[in-house]
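U., I forgot to send this yesterday:
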Amino acid sequence: MFYKILVLEDNELLLETLGEFLTDNGYSTSLASRGKDALYFTYKEDFDLFLLDVKVPDISGFEFLKQMRDAGCKTPAIFLTSLRDKESLAQGFGLGGDDYIKKPFDLDELLFRIQAVLARKNEEEDEIKIFDDFYINKERKRVYKADKELSLNLKDYELLCLLIENRGKVVTMEMIVDRLWKNEIANIGSIRVYITNLKKIFGKDSIFNIRAVGYRFEK
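Result:
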């Protein structure tokens, strides 16, 4: 799954390092060195995770998260902090923080913490964001644009879920057959029809055909 992470950190070198590291590990990032810039990013798009330094210009990481929670935003947050007193840590968790890591930290440890927080988030949610205002409701097995349900048959839905679960990676024909037909007799020719149906909804460039191999969801 393709996750978007907002990083708030006023140390420019560390900010750049985090951006490169997260990108190399398959995440999309928006980087802010000031609290007001971080808020601006949240007006433009939704994020799956906040990485927040505490002591930054304009609006601290604590105040940023407070404003997010007051606005009803439930995006999980990890604090990146040099603060070591229990009062500060208690304040961070009290504001709705999900985890913290003390500076200086190991990048691999940070990655493990990010993965753990996002895994918990997915377990708690019944919805999977596709992009923009498109999302999947797993419990109901329905796909929506905003609040409008889209017309998809069950095979379309299962194929879409498979592509989203492997977003940015090639989904082979074997994987599709296993997912859509399991122990049934597969109809290979119908896969093109299902792909065409999905492209009509999400755009012709949303799914890339890897000839003789499979497909890749590009959004």
